[in-house]
Amino acid sequence: MFASLARCSIFQLYAFIISPRRPVIAFFSILVSIITIAFVSTTISYDLDVDPINRRIERKFYGAVPNSSYKRTVTFFSMFAFTVISTAFKTVSCAFMAATSVPLFAFMIACEVGLGLLIKIVRGDYLYWFPLNGVTAYVISTIVRISTQICTGCTAMLELRHPQELGGGWWTITIIWTHLSAYSSVYAYHGGMNNLIDWFGGRFVYDGSLISSTLLYGSLSTLSICWFICGGVLLLAMKSEYWGTFFSIKTGSQFVCDKFRNCCYDDASKADCVLFVNGKLIADIRVEIYNWIFTNYEIWEQENPKWYTDNGLLLMNLPPTFIPEQIYTDIKRRNAFKLNKGRSFHNKMKTSAEIILLTTGRSGGSRKHIT
């Protein structure tokens, strides 16, 4: 949906720019596309943040929206306005650069995506959290990383600042880059960057007149002022302890490890944290997971909590070195038939929400511990 709407708004503005006739109704069609993108993006980010389950299991990231109804309203509309303007800047940036030189436009997008991938590689954060292995993990990670980078620029979705997605620091840089690239695209459209465009080639020759530079720069300047105001209101309306999520340099692996150590206070949340992610993300806490399983395995066998389904089969999602050898052998023996037939997608990819909902009401502090 995002891809369709973003593509639609960029193509519409591109056609509007190169057309000798520019009807006002076409401009309103572009505006509707931008507003729709922003509304969907804002709704997704807002709903995920206020979701009680997310606030319970990832409270260091979710929970920025205040509990007050008034502040929630202010947060939503400031987030929406901020996203509308950011989306508008991306649309202007892409459409005007494409209307100036298609090769230079392609180079601009390639640099943005390539730099994002390079940063992920350098920081050891390239693999996505999906529990996949081998070549498949790298192929899927590449597709997701590219899609996330493009989606961030086109939608300014706040959810994508999550450490397991783009990360707060790079998310903020991407939004600022999108903002500045709109000015550079308009500058190129009005004859700037001649040497660069001559090198890439493909400068578009217009049959009609160019859109007034005074109108374009005036509109962008007004939007920039509104963008800063909306961003400031958003930060003031949300809880101040979450401001750091916009500038965080924490990797996905660091986030998961920190979550396991400091945010998971019962076995259900710990299981949700480590059983459904790529094993390489939790390599730093292998010993802690090993000891957690070793200490609690007999308790789980006796109490059979709801998350502990199919005789502990979910534990087999972990790499073998994360599980004590005797326990691994025991689980494998009891589930030999299912393992031979292959685990169903439902068992392997059970969602976080389901795991937590299944354990609602169970107190982690009431169980007995084996010494």
Overview features:
elongated, mainly alpha, 16 helices
Describe this structure in words.
It is a single chain. With 371 residues, the chain is mostly helical. It has two domains: 2-246, no CATH class; 252-366, no CATH class. It is built from 16 helices and no strands. Mean pLDDT is 84; it is low at 342-371.
Write the layout of secondary structure elements.
Elements: H1 2-18, H2 24-50, H3 52-57, H4 69-100, H5 102-122, H6 134-155, H7 168-189, H8 194-200, H9 213-237, H10 252-262, H11 267-274, H12 286-303, H13 325-334, H14 336-341, H15 345-348, H16 352-358
Helix pairs in contact: 1-2, 1-4, 2-4, 4-5, 4-7, 4-9, 5-6, 7-9
Q: What does the largest sheet look like?
A: none
Strand proportion, as a percent range, falls in: under 5%
Distance, first to last CA: 53 Å
Q: What value does the Rg take, in angstroms?
A: 25 Å
Per DSSP, the total helix count is 16
Shape: elongated
Domain unit count: 2
Helix content estimate: 55-70%
Pattern of helices and strands? HHHHHHHHHHHHHHHH
Class computed from helices, strands and strand pairing: mainly alpha
